[in-house]
Design a protein that fits this description.
The chain is 49% helix and 11% strand. The chain is of the alpha/beta class. An eight-stranded parallel barrel has the order 1-2-3-4-5-6-7-8, surrounded by five helices. The termini are far apart.
Amino acid sequence: MTTTFETQRAALADVVAIPVTPFAEDGSVDQDTHRALLRRLLDGGVGTLTPNGNTGEFYALTPQERQLVTELTIDEAGDRAVILVGVGHDVPTAVASARHAREHGAQMVMVHQPVHPYVSQSGWVDYHRAIAEAVPELGVVPYIRNPQLHGDRLAELADACPNVIGVKYAVPDAARFAAFARDAGLDRFVWVAGLAEPYAPSYFSAGATGFTSGLVNVAPAVSLNMLEALRAGDYPAAMKVWEQIRRFEELRAANGSANNVTVVKEALASLGLCRREVRPPSKPLPEHERSEVAVIAAGWSI
């Protein structure tokens, strides 16, 4: 019997939330706060969660912490959300993480862009194929940040691994995305705008049907309002939301996205929802920059 992955495909055509990983005063993962933040997302209407995404500080977590975050998320979500677990690093580590996710009840894995200074086109296929073949029951979503990758390579991967069902595309070029999606097969995959709300309108116009979000941690309703407008094809309404979140996302994107996670945690801290601490190489905002983030967060309908 061939798996169709219909539930997983539907979950990708949505707001794909990337939860933060809150830390306790001693620097460990704050499990109680993590659960509270997840409940807030679920209660806010979010139906797709990505533990161990970049907003969750994937690369700053230990292997044991990544497992903990996966297990906490799956346990807290229950049947209220579809879980897309971030995996990566070397192939054995990624495969072990994917199998751990499967054993604990996740439905999909997102494969982070390979961290290697030398990535060949065929090597990219081999890397993802090794992971996808290890968990054929799970939907697999490559996270593409490489503008050099050709769409036909994704098609080649999916020919070998039919569980490759969606793509988180995060190259900041809407025209390149449109061409890549059509070269790979526009209707073959679920296309997720991997650069969140700022790029969602342009990427939806080119074929995306879902978008990732870190902002959703702070204001779930704002992200869901944009999705509703985009699903309706109401681009003026979507751009009204874009204008509302513009400054927040500019702060996150500044200086090569140095404060991408920092700004989200600062907003949550201003609302009393978690501590602001992030791990190196990220760093908390200086005192004089915190007030602007707090004003933005307070101004949203939370």
